[in-house]
Amino acid sequence: MTPATAHGAAVPAVRTVLGDIAPEDLGVCNAHDHLFLRSPRLPGQELDDAGAAAAELGAFRAAGGAAVIQWTPYGMGRVAAELPGLARESGVRIVAATGLHQAVHYAPEVLERVRADLAGLFVAELTVGIGGTGPRAGMIKVAGGFHGLDRHARYTMAAAAEAQRATGAAIGVHLELGTGALDVLDLLCGELAVPPDRVILGHLNRAPDLVVHRAAAGAGAYLAFDGPSRAHHATDWRLPEALAALAGAGFADRILLGGDTTTADARSVNGGPGMPHLLSRHRKRLELALGADLVTQFLTANPARAFAAPWARTPHAGQTSPPGRATDAPATT
Ligand SMILES: [Zn+2]
């Protein structure tokens, strides 16, 4: 249950697959990663093995990790039913996502099925449960395009904004190759009036344009820097410099760090960097550039604030029942 004040107003909580927790209980957090993922764009590299997910979580826990935010959205093989058991057995807190990725990650009939009430789907997954019986999602994941936003991205973000208004959940955005951050903020926070501190921009390490980073942080959004990855090796080494610039400009409280393991080969249990790399190597490298206190802030206080939401009880953006009196919307698979 979400904690409530004496006046009945919900206080912020992080919605994990085992229930809502106080933000300060989140602990050392991998703010963007995947235990399960399936896409036609990554044939043969599916993350679909619960045993491998458990091993990777165990390795992350052994490296000092306490929480993982899985950014896998609707229809991409989240295997939501496995997440509570994995969280319980590993002792790692897990937050699941609702939302929708770029159209290229779906068969057309899947998009057709959810198109009529996308916001309703997101709200149901956040407030009732994934698939109606699974754990509740704790964030909304959407995606931009390369230096722009196509019709699918605009439609998806409009639905995300509606679900954000109804629930308070944070919106995490996949930026294609790290681009389009300001286009996303113009749409989400300009046209769609989402509070900037409810937006988490992902993959900015892939486009180390320090001016754009500073503009996005100045607008009030969170910036999630993830990786490293084989595909983005060309820019990964710029990360310490980018984070130092942001911190120096007064935006240390906007920075999140994640691993973003998207393929089986990238897992530590298969010889890749995987989730533990974030803490065993990446953290130490960043501490050399920024000092331990700042990096600890990126891994604990910042994600606790970014992913906490008041979890308003309004069940559906399209309904007008007063908070606390409305009934939950039915779950959609
Ligand atoms: Zn990701």
From TrEMBL:
The keyword Metal-binding applies. Keywords: Hydrolase, Metal-binding. Pfam families: PTE (PF02126). GO terms for molecular function: hydrolase activity; zinc ion binding. Residues 311-333 are annotated as: Disordered. Zn(2+) 2 binds at K141, H174, H203. Binds 2 divalent metal cations per subunit. InterPro entries: Metal_Hydrolase, Phosphotriesterase. Gene3D superfamilies: Metal-dependent hydrolases. Its cofactor is a divalent metal cation. Zn(2+) 1 binds at H32, H34, K141, D260. Signal peptide: none annotated. The modification N6-carboxylysine is found at K141. Belongs to the metallo-dependent hydrolases superfamily. Phosphotriesterase family. This is Phosphotriesterase. The lineage of its organism: Bacteria, Bacillati, Actinomycetota, Actinomycetes, Kitasatosporales.
